[in-house]
Amino acid sequence: MGTAATTAKNKWNKENLDHYHLTLPKGKKPKYMEAAKKLDYGDFSKLIVAAVDEKLEREGINIGE
Question: What is the DSSP string of 27-51?
């Protein structure tokens, strides 16, 4: 069993975040992760969210927030 902090973090994540399994072509993950760092997104997930949001905005699709 995890520590109290880990349990609390996992509970917060479950209540506040959605998860999506992403399948990539072999070898792309480290390249995408490095690009995310170079672009100051911090991590790959933030880059993906920003890219999807940008694409939807360009296409005129409002998903609400």
Answer: THHHHHHHHHHHTT-SSHHHHHHHH
pLDDT score recorded for residue 1: 61
14 is a domain residue: no
State both tokens at 23. 């399948």
The residue range of the domain holding 43 is 20-65
Q: What's the pLDDT at 51?
A: 96
Domain count, the chain: 1
Place of tokens 């109290």: 4
Q: Which residues, 6 or more positions from 24, have their beta carbon under 8 angstroms from its beta carbon?
A: 32
